[in-house]
Each structure stands twice: as structure tokens, then as C-alpha cells.
Amino acid sequence: MPVFALVDCNNFYVSCERVFKPELEHRPVIVLSNNDGCAVARSNEAKALGITMGAPFFKIRHLIDLHDVQVFSSNYALYGDMSSRVMQTLSVFAPAMEIYSIDEAFLNLDRLAFTSLSAYGRQIRHTVRQHTGIPVCIGMAPSKTLAKVAARIAKKSEKAGGVLDLTDPRFQDRALEITPVADVWGVGRQYARYLQMRGIRTARNLRDADIDWFRKKMGINGVRIQKELQGESCYDMETDDPAKKSISVSRSFKTPVTDFDSLSEAVSTYISRGAEKLRAQGSHAEAMTVYVTTNRFKPDAFYYNAATQSFPAALNHTPSLITHGRTALKQIFQKGRAYTKAGVIFSHLTRNGMYQQDLFDTSDRSRPDRVMETVDLINHKMGANTVTCPATGIRKDRSWETAFNYRSPAYTTDWNQLLTVGS
DNA sequence: TCTGGGGTCCTAGGACCC
DNA sequence: TCTGGGGTCCTAGGACCC
Fold it and tell me: Is residue A189 classed as helix, strand or coil in its secondary structure?
């Protein structure tokens, strides 16, 4: 029988902030999304106040003032670095590990001889806490979906103490009974509504339901979810990190943008970032989509438009992509609108160096490639945006830039922002 | 006034071919 | 009125995940 362990960091972004500010323990804390838009991480105390996942900041302001909730902007440099520390700590506990997201990993524990899986789980939990300061919960089970169920209960239940072993089928019935169907991995809002309407309210109902009628609705995934709940593993460990099939960069603006030039600066900035990501994974793009939108919460005036450029020869050269980006933007820009967001998506990515040459393209590509390589190197060493294209804007006041009004220091990735102890 | 960002997979349907 | 069959490839849209 396979044994999957899912290790899940508790309220990860909040926990990262707490590592460097221990006085935040036991107090309500939230971390906001980009542009300080929504609450995307909440401490247990903040959850208890009724602050929901994704709640818009302006709608919970009263709660924040009333209960003195501590607020942070997203600090991805910090969270990314803390994540690698957690993953590195975990990696010694199992022969195979799959990093599933910034705050979750699956460990493969088959064929390890244990007297007690739970005791091993507690040891992992203790070690991660000691090495990184991050609290985690762990669920073990014969399938990934059941391991998810186990981890969720481990997090919620006082009795579990952060670790739950569900490998024994005798315990699975009860666990699935207390798991709402909406909390099953792979069941989102739409499917949950559909299932509930038909009397499937718990994970156990779903496991035991007649298969055919929802197979039609949910397709092959529905079948897999059900098998996984029955203890039959359908999703293997994915231990290597496959190249991305698309790369996108998008941001909401601090304040709405009405003029073409500002919008073009924003789009050029996102293209630069996206091109960096392309080069980092050794890819070229055969197509690029540029899109702009106005405020989607004002449906009567909502505007979304996108233009896709296809390239005869795949590209990852920033200045060329920016030129194409301007052309695309001209096609979709309409005067008199207040844009709140723009983005760019690179697709049809080619593998390492395997890009189609244009039949009529006789230029030497090695020179522009070397330029980009050097730019990436400088920006990596000296900090992002040390060298940029002028098209991304040279003015100081860029109204479209993203707001981070409550950002904590990059404690672990910038010498100038190290934590100081004492005074 | 103020509402995130980056991905994946699956399916249906159209275009096209013989 | 009635109008093949089967296969592949591609795309758009919808669902999901964190």
C-alpha cells in the first residue's frame, strides 16, 4: 500500500511574519494580496473574528480597527525563502518529495519501516518548527486525496495534535463523515453546489455514491476523486519540476489608468518580467497575449479585451517582445476608459533551445541572447530592475504600480533588511 | 473611493483530411 | 425532405488548485 504524507504549513504567510515578530503570537494577524486588496492569509485569531479568505480589505476595515488586527502586505521574497527552508528540512524525511505549492509538500513514506507513522509525523513536525519556526500539520493516507482529508482534520482537531494517520480503513469512515463535500480536493464551488443539491453533503456520501451519474458531470476527474476517497491511489508523486506550459504576469494598478503611455509602461514591465521567467526556464514563446480590463465589479462599464501575437520564430528577447506588446496594446486600447489591470500571457512555449527559426531570419541571435543573459545576471546579483528597458517607464511617479503599504522587511534575502536584535 | 495572481487539466466542438 | 464515417488536431471555455 502506498503511503502519502501531506505536510501543510499553517496559515503560512502569517506564520512567516510571526517568525520575525514573535509578539504577534496569539494575536489576530492577516496578510493581504497584491495591491493590499484582499486577505489571503489569516491567523486562527483573525479567522475567529469572521475574516474570511479573500475578504476585501475595505470591507473588513472596521473589524481590523475594532480588534487591533495586525496587517501585512504580501512579501513574496520572504515567503519564497521561508518556503525553501521548510522544503529543505522536509526533504531528509522521505526518499521522494513533491513540492505541491509554496506551503505544501507530499512525502512518499512507502517501504519505510515504522513502528508508528504518527510518531514519525510528530518528529517531522517538531523538526520543521525547530529549524524554520513554521508550524505545520501532517496527514497520512493511502491516497493523496485522503492525505488531504487527514491533514485538514489534523489542523482543526485539538486531539490530533497536528498529525493524523488515516492509513487504517477503520478510521476513514469517520474522517470522511466529518468532511464536507466542498472540502474534498478537486471539488470546487460549482461541483459542491451540484452535489449538495443531490444530497451528497459529506466526503463519505461522495465516496459511497453511485458512480455513473456524476461521472457525466465531472468527467474522468470525478471518477478519480471517488477512487482516491475509497483508498485507491490515482495520483502519483510528481517529483521533478516540469517546465511551465504558459507563463503569465499581471497586476492590478494602484490607481486607475486612462492614458495609453502609462498602460504601455505597465504592459512593458510585465513583458520584461515574463521574458525573464521564460529565460529562467530556458523557453521561448511562440505566442503572447496582452490584455487589459476595467473594474470587474462595475459590470455595466466593464471592459475586457485581449490581443494575441504569434511569432514566426519563438522569442524570449525582451526588447522584441516589448515591440510586439505595443502593437497588441494598440489593438485593444480604447480611449476614455479607466483601466484597473493589465496582463500578459506567454504560450506555446518551446523547450530548451528547440525553437523554430524563421526561414527568412538571417540575423545572428547569439548577440541579443548574450545581452539578455548579462542583464539577467546583473539583475539577479544587484537586485530586480537594476537594468531595465526604457519602455517600462523612467518617471518616478508611476500611478499604475502596485501598492504594498504594510510590507515587512525582506529579513532573509537582503543584507540591508536583516533583523536587528537589541538596540 | 477601496475587490490578487499564476497555474493545470479536461471536454466539446470546429476545421480539416481521406 | 433526404446528404458517410472516422480520425486528428487545435482552441476556447470551464472547472479546479494554491
Answer: helix
Q: Which three cell numbers stand for residue A353?
A: 533551445
Tell me the pLDDT tens digit for each residue of A276-299: 999 999 999 999 999 999 999 988
pLDDT greater than 70 at residue A355: no
Q: Which amino acid is at A311?
A: F
Give the three-class secondary structure for A416: helix
C-alpha cell recorded at residue A347: 504560450
Contact A223, A215 (CB under 8 A): yes
pLDDT at site A354: 54
DSSP A24: G
Strand order in the sheet with A339-350: A247-257, A339-350, A284-294, A304-315
| CA of residue A340 relative to chain centroid, distance | 22
Q: How far apart are CA A118 and CA A170, in angstroms?
A: 16
Contact A137, A123 (CB under 8 A): no
Which of chain A's residues 402-421 bind strand B, using a 7 Å CB cutoff? 402
- The tens digit of pLDDT for each residue in A155-206 reads 999 889 999 999 999 999 999 999 999 999 999 999 999 999 999 999 999 9
pLDDT category of residue A358 using cuts at 50, 70 and 90: low
pLDDT tens digit sequence for A20-76: 999 999 999 999 999 999 999 999 999 999 999 999 999 999 999 999 999 999 999
Protein CB footprint (7 Å) on chain C nucleotides: 14-18
Establish whether the CB of A297 is closer than 7 Å to any nucleic acid atom in strand B: yes
Q: Strands (DSSP E) along A295-338, which ranges?
A: 304-315
With CA of A223 and C1' of each nucleotide, the nearest comes out as: B10
Could you tell me which residues come within 8 angstroms of residue A374 by beta carbon, excluding any fewer than 6 positions away?
A: none
Task: Supply the DSSP symbol for A119.
Answer: H
Read out DSSP for A241-276? -PPPS-EEEEEEEEEEE-SHHHHHHHHHHHHHHHHH
Answer for A323: CB within 7 Å of strand B. Answer: no
Given this model, what pLDDT does residue A191 score? 95
Question: What mean pLDDT value characterizes chain A?
Answer: 93
d(CA A356, CA A354): 7
In three-state secondary structure terms, A26 is coil
Where would I find the H helices in A52-182?
57-67, 76-91, 117-132, 144-156, 169-177
Residue A227 in grid coordinates: 477512487
Dist. CA A218–CA A373, nearest whole Å: 45
Kindly report the pTM of this predicted structure. Answer: 0.94
